[in-house]
Write a structure and sequence with these properties.
The complex is a heterodimer.
Chain A lengths: L24 E7 L4 E6 L5 E6 L4 E5 L5 E3 L8 E6 L5 E6 L3 E6 L9 E4 L5 E6 L5 E6 L4 E5 L5 E5 L6 E6 L5 E6 L5 E4 L16 E2 L6 E2 L1 E6 L5 E12 L4 E10 L4 E5 L8 E8 L4 E8 L2 E8 L5 E7 L3 E6 L5 E6 L3 E6 L3
Antiparallel strand pairs in A: 1-29, 2-3, 3-4, 4-5, 6-7, 7-8, 8-9, 10-11, 11-12, 12-13, 14-15, 15-16, 17-18, 19-20, 20-21, 21-22, 23-24, 24-25, 25-26, 27-28, 28-29
Chain B lengths: L8 H23 L19 E6 L24 E3 L6 E3 L3 H4 L5 E7 L8 H10 L12 H8 L9 E5 L6 E3 L11 E5 L15 H21 L3 H18 L11 H6 L4 H14 L4 E5 L9 H25 L6 E6 L3 E2 L11 E2 L3 E6 L8 E2 L1 E2 L6 E3 L4 H11 L7 E4 L2 E4 L14
Parallel strand pairs in B: 1-8, 1-9, 4-13, 5-7, 5-8
Antiparallel strand pairs in B: 2-3, 4-12, 6-7, 9-12, 10-11, 14-15, 16-17
Helix pairs in contact in B: 3-10, 8-9
Classes of the chains: A mainly beta, B alpha/beta.
Chain lengths: 344, 430
């Protein structure tokens, strides 16, 4: 793929006409001795970062394929990534509860800052549209907001019933949302940090019929203009310990906070969607896993049924969309980080 | 829909069928009515014998997220290891409270129970009986064996299982040829068996008359057609009567408010208080079940919940048992039917793994702070001191002060209670 990228302050509009899920094809891959669990595409498309089962944090460089291990940071799995708006700082959250700041392009990146952010996993990180705030979601039932410049805690947002899996800022910068293991999707007003009167309904993602808590909104994403919010995960947990549930992706209209569409993907097999993104052309992409098949599944927001699905060679733990809008990095269980182009 | 790699109903059906086949045979032996004298040697006095509390984690708990963590390896998962109260012994960070009680406990980190199968029911039978059952013969579970060997003639059950309240009360067939008297009695939620209070309309005197009539009829029947089945049937009635008479033994509400508060973390915690009460009341073998460990998918999410629910109650129990001096006369075991695979499957789960796993033990002559056996760096194999299910069976009985070499006659054929080719793990003893 090209290394050409827009400037961070003035990102180029995505080349909309080029996105065509039906033309998805692999354009590259990198190998590591352990499974790749999480990944992050550099906003400037210089690198792809990955967290692995053997606690490694890796940077692969586009073009040269140079592999650099980011050492001295987490001593556990990396669960979440974010990047500063100037693209020069990488933020990682680990199962050690830490958030670490890293220089993206340093020859041998070393931690700039480490904070003990949560008790347990840092499941998700998100940078505010103005680039000043970092939100983190933890397994300690907390959402926290940090000053990205110095790592100082701005606000702790309690009130979740269980682990918080996903967090995102609305593109307007006025709202922060979080989805978790049990609670509905909570919205806070940025600045006052007042929670909205009622959570966004996410009941189908949860299952109260089991002795322990299962289900939850695994991933959420706003459409580029902020008109819609997509929620992804699983539903109908007939055997959660065995992974028997159904993929569940819904579309929420932001103005009304109502679920306006439940997407359908027939015959996917039991499993759930681990990540969801908006592409150009009002298209949603989700990574799904089921018995013997892992896929990228695409829907148009105007229709229930998927418009295309791409079979992947191995379990997809995570994927990330490049700023160009038509390349994705996929973290695979078969020890590979693969790059796909969603266009001819 | 089903996932091929999972514990499927089909897999369980097959296993259950095999299991039931074995049960039919053992039930036949049980109903055949082996009298207590079937033991070649009469039971020894109970003075130096220990009660046993088995904390059973059905489904297969993960040794990597409990007693044998492998942090920083591709199999280790996202959790770290933490030091314990015993220098040099580290366990999973998911057990911070238990770590502080390690000086009361020993770890056995080299179980290889592949003589059983990888399915739950057969593996359960194998690790609890020390021998692999077949379709034509079943072996008694250790609880039934202890109940039999500690039998001093009481009609009270010697083997009690305490389960979460979602389960019902009942009797489980696990005594095989020892006879139905030694089957476990299951109490849900740590409460007395339901419906064991004499109805108000019956006076004690009228009930005594009723029971006397029953006994006369039974005696007359036995005088003509004595059979194991009939004796077993009568025994069940006598046991029920004794349970009614001594139902307070099983009533946790009789414990002090302070103890009930101490054990109020969750339901498992309350079950452990029940176990303590039963041991103090002289029940020889109490099994406490704590479930939801069969995590083939999303293991690292669920194990935080299961271990979170296990850790503080277990640590409280261990500290309390030690403080009360009960560990001198009680063996505590924490175990499952197998461990879980070090290799993480594609659904972020861990599967069944009898090849190399761990248990915790405490009490009696179990060496405090010992760690016996070792697994390979990735946890996929036993590296030092392999221990089989048969060895474990010997170890449990030996620790409880019972003779694993006792023999019992079944249909004129003599069986030793434990596989004579196996032996206890002496390194675990002081």
């Amino acid at each position: 793929m090209s290394n050409a990228a827009a400037s961070p302050a003035n990102p180029a509009p995505p080349p909309t006409p080029l996105v065509d899920p039906k033309k998805t094809h692999e354009v590259g891959k990198w190998h590591h001795p352990a499974a790749i669990y999480r990944c992050k595409a550099d906003r400037k498309a210089r690198y792809v970062f990955a967290g692995t089962y053997d606690n490694s944090l890796i940077r692969w460089e586009q073009g040269t394929n140079a592999k650099t291990v980011l050492a001295g940071g987490h001593d556990t799995w990396v669960y979440s990534f974010a990047q500063s708006n100037d693209s020069e700082t990488l933020l990682t959250g680990g199962s050690d509860g830490r958030i670490i700041w890293w220089p993206v392009a340093a020859p041998a990146p070393a931690p700039i800052r480490k904070i003990d952010a949560h008790q347990g996993f840092v499941w998700s990180l998100a940078v505010s549209p103005d680039g000043t705030l970092l939100a983190s979601a933890g397994s300690d039932k907390l959402v926290k907001v940090w000053n990205i410049a110095d790592g100082v805690l701005v606000k702790e947002l309690p009130g979740q019933e269980n682990e918080v899996y996903s967090v995102a800022f609305h593109p307007s910068g006025k709202s922060l949302v979080a989805g978790g293991l049990i609670a509905g999707v909570t919205e806070w007003e940025v600045g006052s940090w007042k929670p909205a009167a009622a959570p966004i309904d996410s009941k189908p993602f949860h299952d109260g019929n089991w002795h322990i808590k299962c289900g939850g909104v695994r991933s959420l994403a706003f459409s580029p203009g902020g008109k819609h919010l997509a929620l992804a995960g699983g539903t109908k947990y007939s055997n959660p310990f065995g992974g028997t549930m159904e993929t569940h992706v819904v579309l929420v209209e932001w103005d009304t906070k109502k679920v306006v569409r439940t997407f359908v993907a027939e015959n996917l097999g039991p499993g759930f969607a681990s990540r969801v993104f908006f592409l150009a052309n009002d298209t949603i992409a989700a990574g799904t896993n089921s018995t013997g098949a892992s896929r990228l599944v695409f829907w148009n927001i105007d229709a229930d049924k998927d418009i295309h699905r791409v079979d992947l060679p191995s379990q997809v733990h995570d994927f990330d969309l490049f700023a160009d809008g038509f390349h994705v990095a996929v973290a695979h269980n078969d020890h590979h980080l693969r790059l796909y182009k969603l266009a001819p | 829909m089903r996932m091929d790699h999972l514990c499927t109903p089909v897999e369980h059906q097959v296993s259950r069928r095999q299991f039931l086949g074995g049960l039919t045979a053992c039930a036949a032996a049980a109903m055949g009515g082996l009298p207590a004298s079937a033991f070649a040697n009469p039971p020894a006095p109970a003075a130096d014998k220990k009660s046993i509390v088995l904390i059973w984690l059905p489904g297969g708990s993960s040794q990597l997220e409990m007693w044998d963590p492998k942090p920083g390896t591709p199999t280790g998962g996202p959790y770290r290891a933490i030091p314990t109260s015993v220098p040099g012994i580290h366990i999973s960070e998911l057990l911070p409270h238990s770590a502080k009680q390690m000086h009361h406990m020993a770890l056995l980190r080299s179980l290889d129970t592949q003589e059983g199968t990888g399915d739950h029911l057969n593996a359960t039978c194998t690790v609890l009986s020390g021998q692999r059952s077949s379709q034509v013969f079943d072996y008694p579970h250790v609880g039934a064996v202890v109940s039999r060997m500690r039998d001093q003639g009481s009609a009270l059950p010697g083997f009690v299982q305490i389960r979460e309240s979602v389960h019902g009360a009942g009797i489980e067939t696990n005594a095989a040829y020892l006879g139905s008297k030694y089957n476990s009695v299951t109490l849900p939620g740590g409460q007395p068996i339901p419906d064991t209070v004499r109805p108000g309309e019956f006076t004690q005197a009228s009930d005594d008359q009723r029971q006397a009539l029953r006994r006369r009829v039974n005696d007359r029947f036995l005088s003509r057609r004595r059979s194991g089945s009939a004796e077993s049937y009568i025994q069940t009635y006598e046991q029920g009567l004794e349970l009614m008479r001594q139902r307070d033994i099983f009533d946790m509400s009789k414990e002090s408010a302070a103890d009930q508060q101490k054990y109020s973390t969750n339901e498992f915690s309350k079950l452990l208080l029940s176990a303590r009460r039963m041991v103090e009341q002289g029940i020889p073998f109490v099994q406490v079940n704590y479930s939801n460990h069969d995590t083939h998918a999303d293991h690292f999410i669920y194990v935080r919940q299961t271990m979170g629910g296990f850790d503080l109650p277990f640590a409280t129990f261990m500290a309390d048992m030690a403080e009360r001096g009960l560990l001198t006369k009680t063996i505590v075991l924490v175990m499952s039917e197998f461990g879980r695979t070090p290799n993480i499957n594609q659904f972020c789960g861990r599967d069944h793994f009898p090849n190399a796993w761990s248990i915790a033990l405490a009490g009696g002559k179990i060496a405090k702070g010992a760690a016996v056996g070792k697994t390979s760096p990735d946890g996929n194999a036993v590296a030092e001191r392999p221990v089989t299910a048969g060895d474990l069976f010997h170890t449990i009985l030996d620790a409880a002060g019972l003779n694993a070499h006792e023999s019992v006659k079944v249909g004129g054929r003599e069986f030793t209670i434990a596989n004579p080719a196996k032996a206890p793990v002496k390194e675990l003893f002081t």
